[in-house]
Write a structure and sequence with these properties.
- The complex is a heterodimer of chains A (363) and B (350).
- Chain A contains 13 helices and 2 strands.
- Chain A is mainly α and 363 residues long.
- Chain A has a single domain, classed as Ribonucleotide Reductase, subunit A (Orthogonal Bundle).
- In chain A, helix 8 runs antiparallel to helix 10.
- The N and C termini of chain A lie far apart (59 Å).
- With 350 residues, chain B is mostly helical.
- The termini of chain B are far apart.
- Chain B has 2 domains: 80 residues, no CATH class; 259 residues, Ribonucleotide Reductase, subunit A, CATH 1.10.620.
- In chain B, helix 4 packs antiparallel against helix 5, helix 4 packs across helix 10 and helix 5 packs antiparallel against helix 8.
- The chains are: A mainly alpha (363), B mainly alpha (350).
- Chains A and B meet through helix 1, helix 2, helix 4, helix 5 and helix 6 of A and helix 2, helix 3, helix 4, helix 5 and helix 6 of B.
């Protein structure tokens, strides 16, 4: 169905304020889009309208993909115009999932289950939360740095990154709330080595560099840690915090893995560059050896974790053994993700500190 | 329940151990005994702003990633967040606006009854698609703008950063929802806007300028379109869509007007600069209006009830424009800028 041409002509010829109406000419209605079981999701309209993100965007105005161009629109130079620069095959799906799984730290955490803890454990939990606030600050800011640079033809990535910023903001406030809700308080700012690691994410000058360091290595690492929240949390409130945060982080990691996969498939010449990012980020995965921590790296993360996992100041040995187990999981999950992304060769190229934790390859 | 007053200090722990751990952090706590209590709205941001943790500094000097209220490490590296003055970003409702944003979250895919949006006659459906196309484009630019400013704000004002993250998320939701509305009934995406105002917004060089353009001007004018759209909507789904988006923008406006009022109270010498930003915005909006024929005519068709009523729609559109300007000026009055009424760019009304 279209608008009747005669009506348009008649309206134009009438006296009164001039009407153009040319934007209605030739416009025909297509079939109605039917929502799927999950409601009207982005992929429903993309499929119905054969609407796919272009490999390279020639769009230099502000218009989102599919919007019709006008010749006098303002021009904006977009930095990232190749799909491979930022794309991940799952970003639209992850966006919809993020919307479906939003939660509220004010009401979805059973705060009433927090019980007074011995001082050593309360101090450890508060120190861990203080450190995590810092981490989440950075994780919330980083996607925002990149969003304006992404072409509106690849808006699904922008949308996903906006959900990441929202998730990280919520993590920041939930950890702050925990530190201030049970008789403790905020503790010491993390060591410079931790801040430097966070700065390296912020300083990344390429989207893929940022994504590898943030999504694949950094968030992959904390995802493993949060999944161990059943052992770290000392109340149902804390266990639920870690469960919900892990659920969010898993989406961010999934984006990073699929972005890397897209690069591996579409820009294979970038493999060595990717390995160089991994070389730089991997040392943060293993921060202890032979039962001792290297230097001061992540003191404010690892030491409280050791205490919480061990069960107190007097049970540090048990906590250190648990850290060993977490590291083993962290390293193997990391390698598995790289394998899914098409970087299975990393196993033979990883930094030496990782090797002792790698499980044998299963055939 | 009220928060328990901080008291005492924790036991002192020896840092000696066989594992080479540092453990000095165990003897460093900023305010031991803090016990925030949930309110009737849960454990909110406002509820944890107690003691030293609720002290919002006028200028946050620390430019590291430290959480406000924790114990700083001397020599910590900087993160270079340039917006560090409370007067630039703060209004006392920020914590509550953030929590409200979380509480009132909605999902376009499921919370809009899309099945209720029956196909309209081609003229109305295509006009709706054009209207929704521009709203969608606007929202995507807002997403970009908010995202860019998020990292510029100091960590000392984390409540503002949280609110901005929520607004970024809301802008994405508006983009998505209007894109879906444009095409669900077989319509195609329409023409882009000429983008003068959007460019001005993207190019703003300070948070103050950005917030005036985004949280006051954009939010006010777009909020008026939503109110009008609720009236010409012909389905429950459309009404719900516009109402939900309007509720989001009400929070943007509350932030924008509260922030601007507070800023002018503390920095009255900035008043003329505010007028300069407003004038630039008003000129850009006027220019867009003159150039965006498809958007203007689409609205006239919707207000006129269809293509045959387009001329009647144009008259209504004129009235609506005047009402929009009145709404905008009323918001500026709330923001402590009542004199704008006599200084508004004349062509904005025409």
């Amino acid at each position: 169905m279209a608008v009747d041409k005669n009506t348009l002509e008649m309206l134009r010829s009438e006296t009164g304020p001039g009407l153009d109406l040319s934007w209605l000419e030739g416009a025909e209605l297509a079939d109605r889009v039917t929502p799927s079981k999950r409601g009207l999701i982005l992929s429903d309209i993309a499929t119905a309208r054969a609407d796919t993100a272009p490999e390279h965007s020639e769009n230099l105005s502000l218009r989102p993909r599919g919007t019709r161009q006008i010749l006098n629109a303002t021009r904006v130079a977009m930095r990232l115009r190749d799909k491979a620069d930022t794309w991940a095959g799952n970003c639209a799906l992850l966006y919809e999932e993020a919307l479906a799984r939003q939660w509220s730290s004010a009401t979805d955490i059973p705060w009433e289950t927090l019980k007074p803890l011995p001082d050593d454990l309360e101090l450890a939990m508060c120190q861990l939360c203080t450190h995590l606030c810092e981490v989440e600050f950075t994780a919330a800011d980083v996607p925002g740095q990149w969003i304006p640079a992404i072409s509106p033809d690849h808006f699904e990535v922008k949308l996903f990154l906006a959900t990441q910023a929202m998730d990280e903001a919520r993590h920041l406030e939930v950890f702050r709330k925990r530190a201030l809700a049970n008789g403790g308080g905020l503790m010491r700012q993390s060591a410079d080595s931790a801040a430097s690691a966070l700065r390296s994410i912020m300083d990344a000058s390429d989207f893929t560099e940022m994504s590898v360091i943030t999504h694949v290595v950094g968030e992959g690492q904390v995802l493993t840690m949060f999944r161990m929240g059943e052992f770290v949390g000392l109340s149902e409130a804390e266990k639920k915090i870690f469960r919900l945060v892990a659920q969010d982080e898993s989406r961010h990691v999934a984006f990073g893995v699929m972005h890397l996969k897209y690069i591996a498939e579409h820009q294979p010449w970038r493999r060595e560059e990717i390995h160089s990012y991994l070389d730089r980020a991997e040392p943060s995965l293993v921060m202890h050896k032979g039962g001792r921590i290297f230097g001061t790296a992540f003191t404010e993360r690892l030491e409280p974790l050791i205490m919480l996992l061990g069960g107190g100041r007097d049970r540090l040995d048990g906590g250190m053994a648990s850290i060993d187990e977490i590291t083993r999981r962290m390293v193997n999950e990391y390698m598995q993700r790289l394998s899914v992304a098409g970087f299975g060769d990393r196993r033979g190229r990883c930094i030496p500190a990782i090797e002792p934790y790698l499980d044998p390859v299963r055939n | 329940m009220t928060a328990e007053q901080p008291q005492g200090r924790p036991a002192r722990f020896s840092t000696e151990n066989d594992l080479g751990l540092d453990l000095t952090w165990m003897n460093v706590v900023s305010q031991w005994g803090t016990r925030a209590r949930p309110t009737d709205k849960g454990l909110t941001l406002g509820a944890i702003n107690i003691g030293v943790y609720g002290e919002i500094p006028e200028v946050y000097e620390n430019d590291s990633e430290m959480a406000r209220g924790s114990i700083p490490r001397p020599g910590a590296i900087g993160f270079g967040n340039p917006v560090r003055e409370k007067a630039e970003v703060w209004t006392d409702t920020v914590p509550e606006l953030y929590e409200e944003s979380i509480r009132r979250r909605w999902r376009p895919s499921l919370d809009i009854p899309w099945e209720s949006i029956a196909p309209l006659a081609p003229d109305l459906e295509l006009a709706t698609a054009q209207f929704a196309t521009v709203l969608s484009e606007n929202a995507l630019v807002c997403l970009d703008v908010i995202a860019r400013w998020l990292r510029e704000i100091s960590y000392g004002f984390h409540e503002v950063k949280l609110l901005m993250a929520a607004q970024e998320f809301e802008a994405g939701r508006h983009f998505e929802a209007f894109r879906k509305r444009a095409v669900i009934n077989g319509g195609r995406l329409g023409f882009e806007s000429s983008g003068k105002f959007l460019r001005l917004l993207s190019d703003a060089k300070s948070f103050n300028e950005t917030s005036i353009l985004l949280h006051v001007m954009y939010a006010s004018f777009t909020r008026s379109w939503f109110s009008a759209a609720v009236k010409f909507s012909r389905s429950e789904g459309d009404r719900k869509l516009y109402t939900a988006c309007a509720a989001d923008l009400d929070r943007w406006l509350a932030y924008g007007t509260g922030r601007l009022r507070g800023m002018l109270e503390k920095k009255p010498e900035r008043r003329e600069q505010v007028h300069s930003y407003l004038l630039r915005g008003e000129i850009a909006l006027t220019e867009d209006w003159r150039r965006d024929t498809p958007f203007r005519e689409a609205l006239a068709i919707l207000l006129g009830g269809g293509l045959p009523g387009v001329r009647d729609g144009l008259k209504r559109l004129g009235e609506l424009r005047a009402l929009r300007v009145d709404d905008y000026l009323a918001q500026l009055e709330l923001a402590g800028v009542p004199e704008r009424r006599t200084r508004v760019f004349p062509a904005l009304r025409m």
